[in-house]
Every structure is written in C-alpha cells, then in structure tokens.
Amino acid sequence: MLMPVQCGKLFEMLIGRETTKNQLAKQAGISLNIMNCLKREERIVEQTTEKTCISLGCRAGNILAFIPESQQ
Predict the structure, then answer these.
(1) What does the pLDDT read at residue 2?
(2) Which of 14, 38, 41, 70 gives the lowest tally of CB atoms within 10 Å of its CB?
(3) Do 21 and 39 form a contact (C-beta atoms < 8 A)?
(4) Contact between 41 and 7 (Cβ < 8 Å)
(5) Domain residue ranges in the chain
(6) Is the dihedral of CA 66, 69, 71, 72 positive or negative?
(7) Are 28 and 35 in contact (CB under 8 A)?
(8) Does residue 68 contact residue 3 with C-beta atoms inside 8 Å?
(9) pLDDT digit string (tens) for 10-59?
C-alpha cells in the first residue's frame, strides 16, 4: 500500500519563487495534467518527482510530505 503524499510544500515553493505551475511544467518537461494531479494530491510516478526536483534544484522532501497511516 502506498502512503499518501501532500504536495502543498511544492506550491508554497512556487509562490516563494514567483513561478507558476505552467512555468514549472514547461521547465520540468511534465504535462499540465500532471501538475493538476500534484495540485489535487493524486498519485504520481517517481519520474515526475525526479523531474520536478531537478527543475527546482531541490530534494523530494522539500516539496512532498508523506502522511503516516495513523494520520489519515
């Protein structure tokens, strides 16, 4: 079973950098559909996280927070 992920930190980072999700999608080479999945905190593939982190120069822990089962 996969642990749910919150992506709020990603969007906080984008606000802090004055970057839109459209700009990030283009820079990272991911689709706007994937960006919308991130916004809705839906399941994404690892490659999306990797591309996003490379584009922003950060680590997964900087943009994602895993939710323990006890807090669901």
Answers:
(1) 53
(2) 70
(3) yes
(4) yes
(5) 5-55
(6) positive
(7) no
(8) yes
(9) 999 999 999 999 999 999 999 998 888 888 877 777 888 899 999 999 99
Residue at token pair 């089962």: 69
Token reading at 72 = 């669901």
**Computed from CA positions of residues 43, 48, 49, 50, in that sequence, does the dihedral angle turn out positive or negative?**
positive
Ramachandran bin of 59, using left for φ above 0, alpha for ψ from -120 to 50, beta for the remaining angles: beta
pTM: 0.69
For the chain, the first-to-last Cα distance in angstroms comes to 13
Structure tokens given for 27:
């820079």
The tokens for 51 are 């591309």
